[in-house]
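REQUEST FORM: STRUCTURE PREDICTION
Request ID: SP-0412
Submitted by: Lab K.M.
Chain count: 1
Length (residues): 300
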Amino acid sequence: MQRRYIFAGLVLALLVGVFFSLRAEQRALIDFEQVEPIPGYKMEMRETPLRVAMISVLNHARTEGYQSQMVRSLGRLLGRPVLLLHRRSYAEINQLLAKGDADVAFLSSGAYMVYGKKEDVRLLAMPERGGTNYYFSYVIVPRASSVTSLTELRGRRFVYVDPMSYSGYLELRAHLRKMGEDPERFFRSSYFTYSHDDSLCAVADSLVDGGVIASLTYDYYQEYAPAMLEQVRIVQVLPGSGMGPVVARRDLREADAVQEILLHLDRDPEAKEAMEQLLIDRFVPPQPELYPRFSPEEGI
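STATUS: Completed
RESULT:
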């Protein structure tokens, strides 16, 4: 019996030895010269987005989503990602352009008129609504006010929109000077809201005796929130100017392509839906003569 166990052990040891011998031989036959190349990793740089700066005379909270939708459509048709830049004041948008931090900008007419380096930017397009590319400045008062004209606002509390807003500041200041009035002394007090919408609300709530806003803002409320207009009255209409233009950096490589897309943007269903909410029927070729050079000092 003991011999049987010894014999079995020897056989098992022999089999194990043969197994490891074959494995060693197999390893010895591996040819390390025959290797398959490892697929390399391609580092794909994400394309730099088109930086689009925008400030609107319309209610920001209600229209921000539509602004984004319109700009996304522009990027999709251009085949390039876009980055939408919002700022509170017109001066901040102009600074983005001046510093090269924005490629395209939807400006207010006043912000373009006072832009110091027009040779550095290129007019691409301007909005059109109802067959016109022009808008006006409305001087408004609370509905219950006894004031019926601009002259009756002398010595009253007044609200402006922005120091670079043509319809909400510059035009009225220039108009007062033409009347022989000193804009600094005409009103008892005044301040900026940095929003046509907020100026309208301040007048509607009788926080001030009067204010000046763009006719586009008035039109927007007439269409989407007419109850607000029941609290104000228009006492003066000033001539206004061309609607705020779209401009690009002069050295923007895709400027021609962006312009072409803008001029046909109303044909894109997604863009058209957004444009309707922004009171834009279509974009048309710009008319520089509608944006005369206007220095802030002329209104101040």
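NOTES: Residues 134-242 form a domain with the D-Maltodextrin-Binding Protein; domain 2 fold (CATH 3.40.190.10).
Reviewed by: T.R.
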